[in-house]
Write a structure and sequence with these properties.
By secondary structure, this protein is of the alpha/beta class. It is built from five helices and nine strands; from the N terminus they run E-E-H-E-E-E-H-E-H-E-E-H-E-H. Keywords: Hydrolase.
Length: about 220
């Protein structure tokens, strides 16, 4: 078991002169790592944002250098019911991510109320899971899914969900179920269904940038 008080390791991208007044945190998927996602940062073109990319706690058993938020059982199929809550590695990652996010403003000097939490695939599931427990400005869920029943957030915030109609990994029905559950809880969800697979193509980068800029502008920032 990894110690839950050990901070996650992360990479950062963005202004270093104190001009960043908003923060975007992005969680990678199963088998990837922070270095994979930070490679997309230059293409986002969002000013005044500090971008933070944490590594998941657990090493991936098959992908050298890859990380994971939790393991999947052998032969796992998203189309079959599964109780993720039985997994101790998920519980550890959930606790460590929540602690890390809670103290992140001490490093960024940006409050959680001006922080957007994003995630891809398994990272999207973690963003849905832990994000509801924190007073975030917004959430971006890419090719994501719910671990269990959606929880009412501690504070209302916009959520953008993007999923590919041809996703061969996470069926789009999983994301549609998550969107419906969030909507039922009163969450303002923007649903974007695109003709793509399990990926983050340039058009999705544009949606992310637009969502971030819209939230920043709506907050009254110039």
């Amino acid at each position: 078991m990894l110690p839950t008080d050990q901070p996650l390791q992360a990479l950062t991208y963005g202004p270093t002169d104190g001009t960043a007044d908003w923060c975007l945190v992005a969680l990678h998927g199963w088998g990837a790592n922070a270095a994979d996602l930070i490679g997309l940062a230059p293409y986002l073109e969002i000013a005044n944002f500090s971008m933070v990319f944490p590594d998941a706690p657990w090493p991936h058993p098959q992908a050298p250098g890859g990380r994971m938020w939790y393991s999947f059982p052998n032969g796992y199929d998203f189309r079959r019911p599964y109780d993720f809550e039985t997994q101790s590695d998920l519980k550890t990652s959930r606790e460590r991510l929540k602690i890390w996010l809670s103290v992140l403003p001490q490093t960024t000097q940006i409050p959680l109320e001006r922080t957007i939490l994003a995630g891809f695939s398994q990272g999207g599931a973690m963003a849905l899971d832990v994000g509801s427990q924190l007073p975030l400005a917004g959430q971006i869920i890419l090719s994501g899914y719910l671990h269990s029943a959606a929880q009412a957030p501690v504070s209302p915030r916009p959520v953008m969900m993007v999923h590919g109609t041809f996703d061969p990994v996470v069926p789009i029905a999983k994301a549609q179920q998550a969107s419906a559950a969030l909507t039922a809880l009163g969450q303002p969800v923007t649903w974007q269904e695109m003709a793509m697979g399990h990926e983050i193509p340039p058009q999705v980068m544009g949606l992310i940038a637009g969502f971030c800029e819209d939230l920043r502008q709506a907050s009254g920032n110039p």
